[in-house]
Fold each of these.
Amino acid sequence: MERTLVICKPDAVERGLVGEIIGRFECKGLRILAAEVLHLDLEILGRHYAEHVDRPFYDDLVAFMSRSPAVLLVVGGPEGTVAMVRSLMGATDPGQAAPGTIRGDFGLEVTENLVHGSDGTGSAEREIAVFFPALASAG
Ligand code: DAT
Ligand code: MG
């Protein structure tokens, strides 16, 4: 089974969109393998977003991601699941995201874009290990 790390970001929780977002993955046929509500702090966000620490938007990104609780999910399915989740999410900027995608249907601007999904199978396994160490793959 291919796995990916999904985060329903603080805006999604605040707006009561978690059920809608999880429902889209379930309707597609993907499985929820793990779920947790967690108020993220700067330490865990620094590990999760390690590739972005030097980007100009990093401070705004982590301020947003740490302002209220998020819902962390491990989503699993057949080969291609990581890309399928990205396609259900839509483009990073909700203003550009296609209608029918989560970001396209519910978002307006890039920081508050509702949902995170890993961008490859390697980053998926690394991110799952950050938030769900008990589910980390061997090696
Ligand atoms: P994605 O979440 O689609 O994988 P990313 O990994 O490039 O996008 O960036 C992580 C998050 O950082 C993204 O969800 C929202 C924020 N972000 C990205 N680019 C940004 C920008 N140009 N301005 C402000 N925030 C940005
Ligand atoms: Mg990314």
Note: The mean pLDDT is 97.
Amino acid sequence: MKITAAITGVGSYVPDYVLTNQELEKMVDTTDEWITTRTGIKERRILKGEDQGTSVMGIKAVQQLLAKTGTQPEEIDLLICSTTTPDLVFPATANIISAAVGTTKAFSFDMQAACSGFLFALATGSQYIQTGTYKKVVVVGADKMSAIVDYTDRANCIIFGDGAGAVLLEPSTEGYGLQDQVLCSDGRGEQYLYQKAGGSRRPPSAETVANREHYVYQEGATVFKFAVTNMANVAAQVMERNHLTNDDVAWLVPHQANKRIIDATAHRMGVGPEKVMLNIQRYGNTTNATIPLCLADYEQQLRQGDNLILAAFGGGFTWGSIYLKWAYDPKPDPITV
Ligand code: UT7
């Protein structure tokens, strides 16, 4: 019998601190009007405090996921964390999360594919389920973008926010879960969106710090152009090769980088705005967390059998789309009932 990898639960966490457009107006030369019309963002969450890394949010998202699904930490076989802002260069943030939540039988590793990371990690985790190797895989997407955002750079500081989301993957023999994927990378995009220093090519030094090289560098307009074309094309490609019309698609789950990129993708797919998951106005671009945060926010509206098209574009360049069949109807939340 064919085994597919189904998402059987979702957890999420965003920090309490809300950074509004109005507050950004006081920090850089910008306006709420410019940010809203150019990006769709109204506010974003920021993780404050000393020694608070991405894992802090990943831990909370996984703890919520385990509680909601009634899963014991020792049952988890594998935990993958996709992040662009790991707590440390090494060891992996996935290991830090694993230790804190007590997934003592799991092996764990990080995945780095910038804003497409969650899709790459979801596809990777699914392979372990589909092959029958493992029964329970946790995939976390988490980023503390505020750690690498220059709050004097008005083109970039308005976009990004912090957050984490996590899903549980389990085997399905009824055909739910991941159906198809198209994942792409093109290293020629490196120069348009990257962090100049802090890695092995340019280790941290007084000079790299003085030159502000430890922040996100982005040529926004160029990235925008590539994102619009590639994210829309890959989502349309996944639909076409699975013979899905816009009527068959229940939800588009797009990476939340810019509302205009999301609108272009939906338009290319022929999907109306009522089918597009959108929370960019509240969280901004949380990089690896955008897609699981959407799934968490819309979980109560999802029905068993719904066809979801996930799509992302990010630094690298990386981009991709995943077609999945939702596995469950809304269930009462054991945390709040
Ligand atoms: O998630 C991973 C991938 N990343 C993305 O998908 C992001 C893609 N890029 C974007 O979303 C957009 O390019 C941005 C939101 C980053 C920028 O928007 P844009 O419409 O492409 O603006 P731009 O960079 O072409 O700049 C247009 C003008 C410039 O002024 P001049 O040179 O025309 O006078 C900028 O200086 O807008 C100015 N500008 C701003 N003005 C007010 C840039 N940022 C701001 C700002 N407030 N915050």
Note: The mean pLDDT is 97.
